[in-house]
Amino acid sequence: MRIVVLAGGIGGARFLLGVRAHAAEVGADITAVVNVGDDAWMHGVRICPDLDSVMYTLGGAADPERGWGRAGESWTVKSELAAYGAEPTWFGLGDKDLATHLVRTRMLNAGYPLSAVTEALCARWQPGVRLLPATDDRLETHAVAELPDGRRAVHFQEWWVRYRAEVPTERFVFVGAESAKPAPGVLDALAGADLVLVAPSNPVVSIAPILAVPGLRDALTAAAAPVVGVSPIIGGAPVRGMADKCLAVVGVPCTAEGVGGLYGARAEGGILDAYLVDSSDEGARVPGLAVRAAPLWMTDERATAAMVAAAVDLAGARG
Ligand code: FO1
């Protein structure tokens, strides 16, 4: 069985732990198509937060509380940079994490595409799933917001980390999306999938930038496989992160139904065939979608694997 997962960072990584556990039981292989909209150049290195969160989490090296960066991290370089007044001082660049960015930057500068760089980094971490960036091209999420120095576009990382999404924000722009191409393997993975899962990631700044890659959304809607979404909102609140603030920017209610409606039913021009909501959202309805309630708290790998089994079952039931 071939499972393809569209995923962002922290929530996507936790979800993929469960997908991997479920796949081990049923003998499936997994391809994760991961968001690159968070990616940024900082201090001269290329940082890929969502790819790294997935790689470190599945490689057993992620800091469990933060969900990003490495366990047992130190911040010597960060404090030395600050001593020089080298901006951005607001970004948490860890010493161990920096090695990943240095290797990535050296390979990118040598001409390797991001997908090849990711494969090389994964040789060390052995995540147990194939990790593909949504695109090898530059696609960055920027936010148009009212900042202390006026209204302007700011990179997602600054919006998210420096301003904590607490500035009046007009919209998100996926810079470079119009000329980006799906990374090698992405379209084939979608075409050959037996099941596609949309992880409980931030629908606005993690899933939408994946779908913004020209050709990717069409490949998803044309896929023979059932497409099942997992709600990132439980009882009207995001499980973690700031999906509520992101949904407000695009005018979507912060509810399981709101996100289901944002994704939409494939039969009606959307991307999903079915949608898993938390037990507390039992009774949620999304036009054109088969909706089922199941416990969605990813408290541990077993709980998440049970979620995945429910999604697989729902996909089959739909078929
Ligand atoms: N998130 C923060 O809230 N503060 C940070 O200082 C921070 C540093 C950081 C460094 C490397 C990395 O891969 C991720 C990092 N993140 C940080 C998370 C990052 O902002 C992600 O884009 C968000 O978590 C959204 O997925």
SSE topology sketch:
Blueprint: E1 2-7, H1 10-26, E2 29-34, E3 40-42, E4 45-47, H2 49-58, H3 76-83, H4 95-109, H5 114-125, E5 130-133, E6 140-147, E7 150-155, H6 156-162, E8 169-175, H7 186-192, E9 195-198, H8 203-211, H9 216-222, E10 227-230, E11 233-234, E12 237-238, H10 243-249, H11 256-263, E13 274-278, E14 290-294, H12 301-318
Parallel strand pairs: 1-2, 1-9, 2-5, 9-10, 10-13, 13-14
Antiparallel strand pairs: 3-4, 6-7, 6-8, 11-12
Helix pairs in contact: 1-2, 1-12, 2-5, 4-5, 7-9
Model regions low in confidence, pLDDT < 50 over at least 5 residues: none
Question: Can you identify the CATH class of the largest domain?
Answer: Alpha Beta
* Cα shape: globular
Named CATH topology of the largest domain: Rossmann fold
Terminal Cα separation, in Å?
Answer: 15 Å
